[in-house]
Structures are given as C-alpha cells and as structure tokens.
Amino acid sequence: MPENSCHAPTVVTCTAPVNIAVIKYWGKRDEELILPINSSLSVTLHQDQLKTTTTVACSRNFQEDRIWLNGKEEDINQPRLQSCLREIRRLARKRRSNEDTTGDVGILSQKVHICSVNNFPTAAGLASSAAGYACLVYTLAQLFGVEGELSGVARQGSGSACRSMYGGFVQWKMGERPDGKDSLAEQVEPESHWPELRVLVLVVSAERKPVGSTSGMQTSVETSRLLKHRADSVVPERMEEMISAIRRRDFAAFGELTMKDSNQFHATCLDTHPPIFYLNDVSRRVINLVHRYNRHYGETRVAYTFDAGPNAVIYTLQDHVKEFVQVVHHFFPPETKVGEFLKGLSVGSTSLPEELKKAIGMEPMPKGINYIISTKVGPGPCVIENPGLHLLGPDGMPKKSA
Amino acid sequence: MPENSCHAPTVVTCTAPVNIAVIKYWGKRDEELILPINSSLSVTLHQDQLKTTTTVACSRNFQEDRIWLNGKEEDINQPRLQSCLREIRRLARKRRSNEDTTGDVGILSQKVHICSVNNFPTAAGLASSAAGYACLVYTLAQLFGVEGELSGVARQGSGSACRSMYGGFVQWKMGERPDGKDSLAEQVEPESHWPELRVLVLVVSAERKPVGSTSGMQTSVETSRLLKHRADSVVPERMEEMISAIRRRDFAAFGELTMKDSNQFHATCLDTHPPIFYLNDVSRRVINLVHRYNRHYGETRVAYTFDAGPNAVIYTLQDHVKEFVQVVHHFFPPETKVGEFLKGLSVGSTSLPEELKKAIGMEPMPKGINYIISTKVGPGPCVIENPGLHLLGPDGMPKKSA
C-alpha cells in the first residue's frame, strides 16, 4: 500500500474487465444489498479489447469525494457509489484494528478523487457498469490496503460487477443469507482453461436506449410468473450443466445452453407487464443466422447471447471464427471493408463456400451491424504500475487526456 | 335435411366466423386427436367483416370426394380433412341407426364436393384454418342431418376451429380423457352480452411467412420449460379470471389479462429451441403504443393480442375506437387516407389532442400497417338459404366467381 507523507496525493490505477453471462442474472430478492433471485455464470472478456481503467487518489488536501466518468464529473452521492466507498473504508478500518497498526489511519480520513474511463465507446451499448464497479472496488481496495474477498463489495455497486472481479469462467452464487454475506463470485476455471474459446461482440445499430436493467428487472420480479419459475426451478440445474460443460470444454453443450438461457431471459422480459423488449429485428436475424449456420454443419459451432440490449455476443472456437466473421460480413454488409468492420483480435480471412450462403438463404441486411469486436477469455482486474498511465495528475484532477 | 331423388346434387352452403383467442392455445398433448395442454378462450368476430363460406354438394354422380379452397383444388386426402369427413359420416350413420330411418341412407354412400372461400385476403395473415374447418364441419353436418355437439369434430380439423363453432365468448375446455371426448368448446356468453366491445385488426406488412403453428407448437412442447409451467400452473387461474372479467364486462381486467396472456404465449415461443419469433418491430411498436396510450389516460382503454404472426388484434370499447384508429393512422401513416386505411365497420372521425401525441412521443413509422379491419363480436356458423349464393353449380363444380 502506497504512503504519503507530504501533500502529494496517494494514487493507484487499476483496470477491470467486462463479463458476459451465459447463465443470466435477472431479478433481485433484495434491492438494497443487490441479492439475486438466481445464481449466474459468466465469461470474463480480455482487457486488451474491453476494459475500464480507474485511478483513485487520496490526499489531505481534497475537500470532498469526487468522481469523473469518461471525462465528465458525476454525482458522488449516488447510493451505489456510496455503498462501495463505505464498505471498502469499513473493511480497511477493520483490517487495521485487527493488525493494530496505527501509523496509516490518516489515509482513511482523507477524501478521494476517482477518475474512470472505458476503452470502448458507450454508444457500443455494452454494459459498462460491471467493469466500472469492479474496477472502482479493486482500485479503492489497493489504495486502502484491503485484501481478500471483494466481490461482495463490487456486487453492491452493480450485481454483475461481482463477476468482473475474477478472470476466466466465473459463477455468482446467489447465497441464502438475508445479509448477503454468502452472495459472492467464485472462479470456476481460470482464463487459461479453454484457450480455443473466442468471443465476437456484434455491435448492432439501435434506434434508442432500451429500458434500464435496474428498473426492468424490478418490474419482471413483480409481474412475471415465468421469471419466478425460471429462478426457482430451471436455473439451479442449468448452473450445474454449464459448469460441467465448461470443465469438459464441451462447446456443443456450452453453446446450446448459452443460447437457451439467453432466450429464456428474453422470454421473461416479454412475460413482464408491460413487456420489455431488448432484441430488435437485427438481433433476431443474428439468432436465425446462427441456427442456420450450425444446422448446415450439423453441429453447434457458434452460439449467441444477448444482454439487456440488441448487441449479440457470439461464442465460438478458434477454428470457426474466421468463417463466421465472413458470414456476418456477408449477411450484414457494412459500408466498410472487413478490415475496418472487425476490431480487436485479428482473425485472418477466408472465402465463403457458396453452399453455405445458400443453406443460410437469408436476404442480406445492409448496415444492420456497425462493427465486430473480436476478443477472447481474459484475466481479472490488474494494477497498472506505470505512473504515466494515471488518469489523475499530481493536482488530483483529471489529466486532459482522461 | 335436403333430399335428392333425381341426379341433381344435394347442396348446402354455410358461413363460419374467425375467432381470436384472449387466453392462448399453444401446445398439444395428443397430435392425432388435437388435444391441447391447456384450456383457451376466444372472442368470435363478426362475419360481416371476416368469414369463410363453404358449399358442400353430394350426388350419386360424383366419382370421388373433392375440395376447392379459394378457387384452387386441393388434396382431399390430407389427414385432418379426412378426420372431419370420417367423423361426420360416422355421426350421421349413428344417428340414422338410432332413429331407424332407412330411406335416406343413400346420401351417406355418396361422394361430396366441397368449395370454400374466405372474404378476407389470405395475404392478410389472419389464421383462416379455424373458420375454414368450423365451416366445413358445420356444412357437412347440415348436409348429413347431424345435430348436437360438433366442436369435437371441428377440433380434429384444427384445434382452434372448435371455438369458431359458437358466437360470442367461447372457451375450449382442454378436458382430461385420453379419447378427447371432453375436449370441447362451450359458449361463455353470447354475442349480445357486451355490445360496446369493438375489435380492430391491424394488418402488418410482414417480410415472410413465419413458422407454422403446427410445427411451432410441437417444438415448444418438446423444448420449452416455461410452456409447461404456463400450461400447468398459470392458465387454469387465468381462465377463471378471464371468464369473470367477461361476465362482469370489466374492460380493464379483460384487457390487462388479454395483453399478459398474449405476451406470455410469445415468451414461450422465445423459450422454444430454436426460438420462434412471431412479433416483428411493427408489432412491438404497437405494443408500446397501446401501453403509452393507456398510461396517458390512466386506465386500460385498449388491449392488444397477437397470434402466430405479426398482426395485432386490438380490443377496445365503442367510446374509444374512433380516437385509437386516429392514433394508429398518425403513428403508422399509410399512403392512403383514413377512409381507405380503415375497412369494415365505420368508426367516425376525430382529431387527436396534441397532448396525447406528445404523451405517446413515438417517431411515426410510415407504412408499418397496411390497413385496419374494424369489426365487433359476432354469432357462430349460419346456414345460407339463398341458393344463388351456393359456391357449387348444378353440375357440382365451382361456379366461376367462387
């Protein structure tokens, strides 16, 4: 833990990943503590392509806690931000009193400045709150010297943030306790477990902002009979099946269950009153495309999943990624070439067999997909050692570039 | 029952209505007998706007059973057609042996010619099989002098056809017997019960033919966990609620439950693997429009329901129909005037309050809806006495106009 004896702020910078659920989280049993009605499971995406970077500084000169998100100062008094700050400070105080070290209690009475940016456009419609809260909690913990289980704190910022506290394949066990102490994330397998697994984020052009997930899931819990049945009776066995498929690296089982669970989540949104729609006509075309592609090959080579928006996330294996990118490019012809259409990990090029195009047999839909981000499974949050990468300057204010 | 002593064919012509379910039928427990996994409930639409007309002729001169649908000869050997013909002939034989009348047994050994037309374009995407099979069974029964319960025969042509055997508000009780003898339609209230109730069919322009309902519901039964829960645990209480709402003429209760059940049906389609989509972006806009319209007035004035296709059927009350038609015309501006946009019962005109347009606050979507058919609750099948309206001529062949 860094120390400051002079007036210069103590500064820590970390990064944290985005995660994409394959068994979906939808619905809280406790709004305050953010306790879910079912367990969920996600894949952590690689930070080379998608990450949040957060710098936290503290100094006795700071008058108040402040936060800047993507270059804009935001209200630090949001209840969920306050929960995370309060919890981390509580854990830091607890740790110090246990260790009976009194020398650095000062830092806990200091105010913090927080600055956070995403390396992906907000317009991409990717849920950034999971990476954001995971990064905030991880960075605060570094600053205050808090170690050990932190997913329970991240969870209180944004439910799915708890899963971004680990790399690889991560489950969030719903827990049973009313105080939420057992509602924590846990790594199922590390990022090295399944090196062939690849991820494509298909960024769909959406007309407007859909219903937010916080209010959406609240309405679902209140009105959807099917959601209750899903949480009580369907998800428990799906969690076991999914963990087993991942352990065995069984792509067909993993992919089929991923698609079924995405569709069931969206089904419960439609069973909500009034109904919530996250999938649009482009999303539905992607779904049809994937099923026709797999049917052509007589095996599950590609699987889709959709969160609370129209973007598709595709899971596939290294051997098939190149062809599937071409398929997407063919059936959603962009204005740009494949090179500009595809961001992130390069995939190499290939030409499409005519019989594949014919078997899919869909009318191409120009500009339905803006671009693809190509990535893979990645590690959990990291500390950035290079002080040149801090987002806050020596004055504790955001650097111009941040 | 008409008789023929010479060689001229015996001819009967009847009409039967379309019905639109408010508690949906989706899924069979017996494919052969067409026995459903849950009860359902529908409103019979008025035949002035939507009907099937069927003429059946029999003659000792006919060499074989034949059928013409909408001007085109079709295969009489379809299993479902054969089920209906066989059942009606069996009932006729049974009745005659009971009555010990032997004089007219001859008619039963004669072949039939069947000619059937709809007064609405097939392109409208309205399920015509319910009206079609109801009309076929009703007409055959007239010809052969069969009386009494016929919905069990119509059910074996097309499940929902059993509900078109009655006017007004009709439930199809799923029954329990393996032989289906108790899986019958029953009138809940006659068409005169709720004279203020009005129906608007919003014909949406669809790109292509969706998955057929027979194969769709089969896949749903095999793969959707949510469908099973719906059928077992949700529909039984909804049937009671719906019957009570109709008896009380409580539009808010009727409308809310109608919308919820439509959405739950489409949710189970989405939970099917691979998923089935019947709603498109226009359907979803209609759904949002209805909820915003109702929210503006702080009460449920309008309700939607969708079958296995993108067309919306709107239930509302006489007092609101005029304004809602204008709302649809405003937010889905057609190329034509309101006059041509609206077919069927006239509704009168009105101007839209600016604050209503603002409250709905949607971007108008030109040509999303082709036209509206305005209708109301109507009676069950009828016999057409005027021989000029027979679809088959004295030679037993379709008249040119049919």
How would you portray this structure in words?
Chains A, B: It comes from Chanos chanos (Milkfish). Chains A, B: Pfam families: MDD_C, MVD-like_N. Chains A, B: Its EC number is 4.1.1.33. Chains A, B: InterPro entries: GHMP_kinase_C_sf, Mev_decarb, Mev_diP_decarb, MVD-like_N, Mvd1_C, Ribosomal_Su5_D2-typ_SF, Ribsml_uS5_D2-typ_fold_subgr. 2 copies of one chain form a homodimer. Chain A has 402 residues and is α+β, with helices and mostly antiparallel strands. Chain A folds into 2 domains: 10-191 and 379-389, Ribosomal Protein S5, domain 2, CATH 3.30.230; 197-376, Alpha-Beta Plaits. Chain A has 11 helices and 17 strands. Chain A has helices at residues 79-99, 106-109, 129-144, 151-155, 213-223, 225-247, 251-270, 281-297, 318-331, 338-341, 354-360, and strands at 10-17, 19-23, 28-30, 35-36, 40-44, 51-59, 66-69, 72-74, 111-118, 169-172, 185-189, 197-204, 302-306, 312-317, 342-344, 369-376, 382-384. Chain A has a 6-stranded mixed sheet with strand order 8-7-9-6-1-17. Chain A has a 5-stranded mixed sheet with strand order 13-14-12-16-15. The longest helix of chain A has 23 residues, at 225-247. The model of chain A has no long low-confidence stretch (mean pLDDT 93). The A-B interface holds A 207, 225-226, 229-230, 233-234, 256, 259-260, 263-264, 266-268, 270-275, 277, 280-281, 284, 287, 291, 363 and B 207, 225-226, 229-230, 233-234, 256, 259-260, 263-264, 266-268, 270-275, 277, 280-281, 284, 287, 291, 363.
| Mean of residue pLDDT values of chain A | 93
Low-confidence spans of chain A: none
Q: Which class do the helix and strand fractions of chain A yield? A: alpha+beta
The N- and C-terminal alpha carbons of chain A lie at a distance of 24 Å
CATH topology of the largest domain in chain A: Ribosomal Protein S5, domain 2
Largest sheet of chain A: 6 strands, mixed
Helix fraction of chain A by DSSP (H/I, runs of at least 4): 25-40%
Number of strands of chain A: 17
Strand content of chain A: 15-25%
What's the number of structural domains of chain A? 2
Q: What assembly state would you assign to the polypeptide chains in this entry?
A: homodimer
Number of helices of chain A: 11
Strand order of the largest sheet of chain A: 8-7-9-6-1-17
Biggest interface: chains and residue counts?
A-B, 28 and 28 residues
Question: Rg of chain A from C-alpha positions?
Answer: 22 Å
How does CATH name the architecture of the largest domain in chain A? 2-Layer Sandwich
- Could you say which overall geometry of chain A the principal axes of the C-alpha atoms support? globular
Q: What is the N-to-C succession of helices and strands of chain A?
A: EEEEEEEEHHEHHEEEHHHHEEHHEHEE
CATH class of the largest domain in chain A: Alpha Beta
